[in-house]
Design goal:
By secondary structure, this protein is of the alpha+beta class. It has one domain. Strands 4-3-2-1-5 form a 5-stranded antiparallel beta sheet, with helices on one face.
């Protein structure tokens, strides 16, 4: 993805979120993702926050939020993940734990979906 329109620090942060998905903790891992449906990115600030809604290969839909503080994916980072209820469209993006403001971002969703497609093609 380097050198493409999708390249950049936003993608780097989402890769960090994907790397932290854990089957025991979250019920799925990055390799289980089939397609991205939506993504959000927090306003610029000292830290970073973002998240996405994706469809898993088994048909379930999931929501993942990630946050990295000033240490940039060291001790002050976390992710939260859950399976969406059947029929639930997109989760509400309310204030989360003092994270900066945020909104759904179509460009980020397309970039993440392109990343998934590329990883699947290389597998």
């Amino acid at each position: 993805m380097r050198g493409t329109d999708e390249d950049g620090p936003i993608l780097d942060h989402f890769v960090q979120v994907l790397r932290r998905l854990d089957a025991a903790r979250h019920g799925f891992v990055a390799d289980d993702l089939a397609a991205m449906e939506a993504a959000w990115i927090g306003n610029a600030g000292a830290g970073w926050s973002g998240g996405f809604v994706a469809r898993l290969r088994d048909g379930r839909r999931i929501h993942v939020d990630g946050r990295a503080g000033a240490s940039h994916w060291s001790e002050d980072c976390d992710i939260e993940a859950s399976v969406l209820d059947t029929g639930q469209t997109l989760p509400e993006l309310a204030a989360r734990h003092g994270w900066q403001g945020h909104a759904w971002d179509e460009h980020a969703a397309r970039a993440l979906d392109a990343l998934l497609a590329r990883l699947a093609a290389e597998a």
